[in-house]
Amino acid sequence: MVKNKKIYICERSSSHIVFQNNILSDEYKKYTNKNFKIDSWFIERELEEYENADIILVPSIFVKKTFNQFNINKAKVLNFGVNTQSFFKDCNIKKSEKYFDILFIGQISLRKGLHYLIDASNKFKHPNKRLHIVGSHTSSLDKDFFKDKIKNDKIIYYGHVDYLKLNNLYNKSHVFVLPSIEEGFATVILQAIAAGCPVIVSQNTGASEFVVNNKCGFSIPIRDDVAIVDKLELLAENKSLLEEFSNNAENCMTNNTWSNYVDRLDDLIIEHKQNK
Hints:
The chain is α/β, with parallel strands linked by helices and 276 residues long. The chain has 2 domains: 96 residues, no CATH class; 152 residues, Glycogen Phosphorylase B (Rossmann fold), CATH 3.40.50. The chain has 11 helices and 11 strands. Helix 5 links the parallel strand 7 and strand 8. It is globular and about 60 Å long.
């Protein structure tokens, strides 16, 4: 539908809403025995947006695949960018030589897969491991579930941290882990990469291909704490690989700023008009 030379773009930053609802419903039912459900009126309204749009703008191949499952083929992938003025490798900050520091930044929720990371951290056999958790609870359901899980002498829980202070945490950490059940493209992953911090991400974070292609970390299946443990052990034991990932991470962000994002969006719109 192009009216008066206008293009209707629906931006969807997460997976297809029905896919999202289904996968999160399964997760919450499994771990809390309570129902998680996106309001039906909201789902219906969004499905209508999908139907009417000329382009559905999505941030990752993962999200595009969830639309393909519903036979929607107008999703176009445009990876998010990162502010490299705020997130960068700070050579004045040194990582601990005594501790192995693991960082998680995100909502304290089952959606982010934090429970799998906590389980993995507990199984990770390192004498001086520390898991740093930054974020706030999104619901009373999540708050109740994680209340006792984050009470651990190997876990440092910060709660909300000012955006401008996050770069310090990325630079101090040996690895950033985000094992989300479902995402669009978690921007915290790009922030970590811009700061030269290797990452371990689930295939459903949206950043899986980016991480693998740029060799700055590992992509693992969702719901797999054993895979997280394996990668943590590998990085803790192999300092040269950790350094290689860190250098690759720092160097791959040149063309992934928000300015580049706008340029790519312009190209996408021009291409759509030419194909009409």
